[in-house]
Write a structure and sequence with these properties.
Pfam families: PfkB
Domain Carbohydrate kinase PfkB: 2-209
Order of helices and strands: EEHEEEEHHEHEHEHHEEE
CATH architecture of the largest domain: 3-Layer(aba) Sandwich
Number of domains: 2
CATH class of the largest domain: Alpha Beta
Organism: Clytia hemisphaerica
Protein name: Carbohydrate kinase PfkB domain-containing protein
Keywords: ATP-binding, Carbohydrate metabolism, Kinase, Magnesium, Metal-binding, Nucleotide-binding, Potassium, Transferase
Number of helices: 7
Strand content: 15-25%
Low-confidence stretches: none
Strand order of the largest sheet: 7-8-9-10-11-12
Distance between the termini: 12 Å
């Protein structure tokens, strides 16, 4: 979407030498996404995700990492170093090796990037070091509970969890709440609750992942 809006975008990931990998690379090129940092892993299938959506519009995602699990720190820091050093914003999630993600987010932060971390799929006992190098954390309720160690089943508890997450390193936290909208907070500022437009018709909800 950022590329469609005119931003210079590069993708760092790994795909297999299969039809899915070929399709993704063609689509990235079509949308003017820089793919010089994409790694093609021979003999391995490209990672896929099956998205299941219930009638309330809530989703459940089943992920098979495939080639994503073969991306290495060496590839990121050597082949992609020039791209990273020119970047203003870099976004991370957890569909590649955790150690690769952690060393990469640290590398980006140390090179002056605004780092966005979406800790999905949720991982238990995730190191707080991920948050230490995060500028903006964007998480759902499950991920917030895992990262903060606190429940988020009420407005008051959500505020407590957000405050706890800010203390771990991020300058900003976005907590997504599905049909209830999202909460946003900046370190040293107040916590805002953004409520979705009530004109949205429930039976017309579709997944936007």
């Amino acid at each position: 979407m950022a590329a469609k809006l005119g931003a210079n975008v590069a993708m760092i990931s790994s795909v297999g030498d299969d039809n899915f990998g070929e399709m993704f690379l063609k689509e990235f090129k079509k949308e003017n996404v820089n793919i010089e940092c994409m790694h093609i892993e021979a003999g391995i299938s490209t990672g896929v995700a099956q998205i299941l959506v219930n009638k309330e519009g809530e989703n459940c995602i089943i992920i098979v990492k495939g080639a994503n699990g073969r991306l290495t720190t060496e590839h990121v820091q050597q082949k992609c170093a020039d791209v990273i050093k020119k970047a203003k914003v870099v976004m991370f999630q957890l569909e590649i090796d955790l150690n690769v993600t952690l060393t990469s987010i640290k590398f980006c932060k140390e090179n002056g990037c605004f780092t966005i971390f979406n800790p999905a799929p949720a991982v238990s006992n995730l190191s707080d070091d991920f948050l230490k190098y995060t500028t903006l954390l964007c998480c759902n309720e499950t991920e917030a509970e895992i990262l903060s160690g606190l429940q988020v089943d009420s407005p008051e508890k959500r505020q407590g969890a957000i405050k706890g997450l800010l203390q771990k390193g991020p300058e900003y936290v976005v907590l997504t709440l599905g049909s209830q909208g999202a909460m946003f907070a900046q370190k040293g500022g107040s916590i805002q609750h953004v409520v979705p437009d009530q004109s949205v018709v429930p039976d017309k909800i579709v997944d936007t992942t």
